[in-house]
Amino acid sequence: MKQEDIYLQNPWWRSIDKIDEDISIMLFNKSSFKYYPAFLNVIDFNKKGIYTLRGPRQVGKTTSLKLMIKQLLDLEYNPSDILYLSLDNVSSKEEFTETIKNWLLLRRKASSKKQYLFLDEISFIKDWQYSIKYLYDINLLNEVFVFLSGSSAYDIKRSSERLPGRRGAGVDLIQLPVSFREFIQTNYNTSLKPYSLSEILHLSDSDLKLLNYEYGQYIPDFNIYRNSGGFPRIINAYLKENMINDSVLKIYEDFILGDIERFSKSRFTLTELIKKTPGIIGQRFSWHSFNNHINSVSSSNTVESYFQILGMNFIAATLFFFDPSKREINPKKQKKIYPLDPIISRVIENLSGKQIKEGNYIESLVLENILRITGKTTEGLNLYHGPYYWYSAKGKEVDFLVKQDTGLFPLEVKYQNQINRSDYTTIKRNFKEGLLLSKDLAFRDEKVVILPVYLFLLLL
């Protein structure tokens, strides 16, 4: 990288207060909705290690990195020992290696203190793990705090395999879109009591009705959230204009379609797949049956490969059938697909010209929120580790199975005004207990708890 480009990306080297002129910090300060991810409060800068942060494009990872840098500067760490680089324009791992090596050698001569590296969009560099391993093995990273961000999970497994014993205190972190609970707590600067799934399941009928009454004030906010989703930029735009305009929508459309080309895939083919997606969201299907509806795709393996990439890029989730008798998924069974967030659903609707059913919209929103309590989402949204779904030999289905220490937790979504016992018979008959999420009703029937979607998302 050119020296001038490095200096431009690190204005605090000239003056500490220049961090406030950084575009990410400026936009954050001007935002009415200022989301501060929870992991920023627990990062220990004194512990050396290699940390990774994953999540979809445009979710705010760069802002998180800049907020950490601002924390360091506010704590009076030496600004010259803090390096930020955006790597989306670095041509090779060799260029990357030389840039980091030269800076570290320079700082080792000038400072006896620890260095802090913030490397943004590391996924753009093929085989970046070899560079990190090399720098570590020549003793340049052993005492350094390294924080890497990326918008794809495709290299997470390889990073663990190729950096054994070199991660130090570092961990893999995830930044997903804002949950409804986080939306309320951030917007109202308040704190809500959290409930585990087990605690929700054991709420009495009177407890449920009281909570529904107390939290009913947030129903209008839920209507905003279901339209805006959880990307902070979209939330701010929606709060300001009460809509998502076409120019903002185009940003998300471009990154969804553009990212596929990084994996040597076709933008045209992805567009054709997306056009057929509204009809299968939340429905059971096979790769083979989906392929039969796409003239431009040669095989079901091709369809699967595209959806795997969408999962690794945190765009769409693939749910697998879970066989309770074998206590494992059956990958050969039918799958279910959900967009990660309402903005992704909007892009799908815009490209396909077809609307997604309201019930499927709500199911996607529920999945987006429960991803925080189950599964290994640092590995993307191909949900081999849960949540899952289940259906019987007779075709009776449960939308989500959440894996907990106490076993599998069934969760059904019925976003409708009336709830009948037949709506949760499958849960009672096959799992004995569980949750059914309604539109506005809150009650319990023996070991099945019924509560509104908005309330569940607030309590979770």
Q: Can you tell me about this structure?
A:
The strands form 4 sheets. This protein has a 6-stranded mixed beta sheet, with helices on both faces. The protein has 2 domains: about 5-175, Rossmann fold (3-Layer(aba) Sandwich); about 180-460, no CATH class. It has 19 helices and 15 strands. It has about 450 residues and is an alpha/beta fold. The chain has helices spanning about 5-10, 25-30, 60-75, 95-110, 130-135, 155-160, 180-190, 195-200, 205-215, 220-230, 230-240, 245-260, 265-275, 285-290, 300-310, 340-350, 360-370, 425-430, 455-460, and strands at about 50-55, 80-85, 115-120, 145-150, 170-175, 315-320, 320-325, 330, 335-340, 390, 395-405, 405-415, 435-440, 445, 450. Strand 12 (about 405-415), helix 18 and strand 13 (about 435-440) form a beta-alpha-beta unit.
Task: Give the SSE layout.
Elements: H1 3-9, H2 23-30, E1 49-54, H3 61-74, E2 82-86, H4 93-110, E3 116-120, H5 128-137, E4 145-150, H6 156-162, E5 172-174, H7 180-188, H8 197-201, H9 205-214, H10 219-228, H11 232-241, H12 246-259, H13 267-276, H14 287-291, H15 300-312, E6 316-319, E7 322-323, E8 328-329, E9 336-339, H16 342-352, H17 358-370, E10 388-391, E11 397-404, E12 407-413, H18 425-431, E13 434-438, E14 443-445, E15 448-452, H19 453-459
Parallel strand pairs: 1-4, 1-5, 2-3, 3-4, 12-13, 13-15
Antiparallel strand pairs: 6-9, 7-8, 10-11, 11-12, 14-15
Helix pairs in contact: 4-5, 10-11, 12-16, 13-16
